[in-house]
Specification:
By secondary structure, this protein is of the alpha+beta class. It has 16 helices and 16 strands. Among the domains are: about 240 residues, Periplasmic binding protein-like II (D-Maltodextrin-Binding Protein, domain 2, 3-Layer(aba) Sandwich); about 120 residues, Periplasmic binding protein-like II (D-Maltodextrin-Binding Protein, domain 2), CATH 3.40.190.10. Helix 14 packs antiparallel against helix 15. InterPro entries: Bact_solute-bd_prot1, DUF3502, SBP. Keywords: Signal.
């Protein structure tokens, strides 16, 4: 891995602005470079050149440090797939702006993600390449690795245009809480199996600690996702489950309905309203700028709602925030339909085969994955006795090294290739969780792609309206009946019924084609 190459294509490295975030690698075993079989290239064949644009929540590294990682990748990929890779790294916040500029300018960009946006528009306008012909060749290892049905959300009329990143496919709803406080008060958390059961817990903690913020307001949306999507079994059909603007459908009924007019949404709002009135949410819960990290580190916040894609997230909270935390599961898991997040090959790519070969490595090659996530072993990280990535000598943490992208460990490729961090999953725990992900429960509408391109004005208007009200409803800071009536009236005036009708027509057509 220390081998130097004789010639490196020097690249102009474009960098974006810094976006701070929270997260960390959770699980995955890496077999390393040595255990990968190589496909030796012919000496007479010049390596292909592929531009790969990815993103980071960590510090943007110096150009020389990014070039160091690029050189290590190329040292490997030239031998393995006869391809050189140019790394183009942007901050999460600036990623899509920069990618769209590159696409519009005609600058070389071969592999990119529809990050936090619909990949359907890139399929429809011809930007995304039809990669169907490569699935059984250059991407064969990847297709054999993917979760069951994982290509459905990126397949249109029998043609596949991209691949989602293999993050968590099994995400039960949960609540992460201060374990020392429940033990002190004799609270039996094994009796908590659903959100409503938390009311009695919150009451006991508030009585003992009247000045404590019981619930972190920043993750209130996670409760709505768990309750609506995984208990009520609602599919947002391409929307955000916690803030739908174009209608949803229940698993047992394919009729698209306004989520805000359902009994389930109203009852959940009434529950959070009762919590707010009891003081479990702070009075400024809808407007506070205090982050989850700040609240939990202060010692004056009991807990936060979360997804348990990482079942040991509480251990990471304990390590990061200085207090003992534990999780309780409050819902099952269900993966619903969605139309965003695909990694795609640009249709203007001069060598699609090379781009697909590199994409294949992102899903199947531990050496490449960990270079992108953690950087160079021995320089940017080292492995402890359990195979967990830890700070190298001379550093106190993984985030202060010259190169790391560990906060985005699951944003591309296959998270199961990534070394765990301390508190993450390894060994039998990792294998158990991995199997849960492969067995993850999918919505009946998984693979449905909602296209609102001809009603974008109405969609945007409704989205802006929901944005005004959602946080107050999530944390119970607003009267439920008055707020829902006002919001629904405005949504209808902005065209929500038209969006629902259009979605119903598309869903009916999709269902009949199955």
């Amino acid at each position: 891995m220390k081998k130097k190459i004789l010639a490196i294509l020097m690249a102009t490295l474009t960098v974006g602005s810094l976006l701070s975030g929270c997260g960390g690698a959770q699980s995955g075993d890496a077999t390393g470079k040595q255990e990968s079989s190589k496909q030796e290239s012919s000496d007479s064949e010049e390596p292909a050149e592929v531009v790969f644009a990815y993103m980071t929540q960590n510090n943007i590294p110096e150009s020389s440090e990014l070039e160091r990682i690029q050189n290590l990748i190329n040292d490997y990929t030239v031998d393995k797939i006869n391809t050189k890779v140019k790394l183009v790294l942007f901050s999460n916040s600036d990623y899509m702006n920069q990618v769209n500029l590159m696409l519009a300018s005609g600058e070389q960009l071969d592999l990119f993600q529809a990050y936090n946006t619909s990949h359907l528009k890139y399929i429809q306008d011809g930007t995304a390449l039809d990669i169907t012909e490569y699935l059984d060749s250059d991407l064969k290892e990847t297709t054999e690795t993917l979760y069951d049905g994982f290509l459905a959300p990126t397949t249109v009329e029998g043609k596949t245009y991209g691949i989602l990143n293999m993050g968590s496919n099994y995400v039960p709803g949960g609540f992460t809480y201060r374990e020392d406080i429940t033990e002190e008060l004799g609270i039996d958390m094994s009796q908590v199996t659903k959100p409503e059961d938390l009311t009695a817990v919150f009451a006991k903690v508030k009585e003992a600690y009247p000045d404590m913020t019981i619930i972190d307001p920043n993750r209130a949306n996670a409760l709505f996702e768990s309750y609506l999507g995984k208990i009520a079994k609602i599919d947002p059909l391409g929307d955000n489950i916690a803030s739908s603007v174009s209608g949803v459908a229940y698993q047992d009924n394919a009729t698209v309905v306004d989520m805000y007019e359902t009994t389930d949404f109203k009852e959940l709002c009434e529950l959070t309203r009762s919590w707010f009135e009891a003081g479990y949410y702070a009075s400024d819960a809808a407007t506070t700028t205090a982050t989850t990290a700040e609240l939990l580190m202060s010692g004056n916040c009991f807990g936060t709602f979360c997804g348990l894609g990482n079942p040991k997230i509480a251990q990471q909270y304990t390590n990061n925030y200085g207090h003992p935390f534990e999780n309780v599961q409050i819902s099952d898991s269900m993966i619903w339909s969605g139309n965003g997040g695909a990694w795609m090959v640009n249709s203007g790519c001069k060598d699609p085969s090379a781009a697909c070969k590199f994409m294949n490595l992102l899903y199947t090659d531990a050496y490449v994955d960990n270079l992108l996530v953690y950087g160079e072993e021995g320089v940017d990280y080292k492995l402890d006795e359990n195979g967990c990535a830890v700070a190298p000598d001379g550093y106190t943490d993984l985030n202060s090294v010259a190169y790391t992208d560990n906060m985005n460990y699951y944003f591309w490729g296959n998270k199961w290739l990534t070394y765990p961090v301390v508190g993450g999953l390894y060994g039998e725990e990792k294998e158990t969780n991995k199997q849960q992900n492969y067995d993850g429960d999918h919505s009946n509408y998984y693979g449905f792609l909602y296209d609102y391109s001809d009603k974008e004005a109405e969609y945007t208007a409704c989205l802006n309206i929901v944005e005004e009200y959602k946080k107050s409803l999530w944390v119970g800071a607003a009267d439920v009946d008055t707020t829902l009536a006002e919001m629904t009236k405005r949504l209808k005036a902005a065209g929500m019924d038209d969006l629902i009708q259009a979605k119903q027509e598309q869903l009916d057509a999709w269902m009949s084609s199955k």
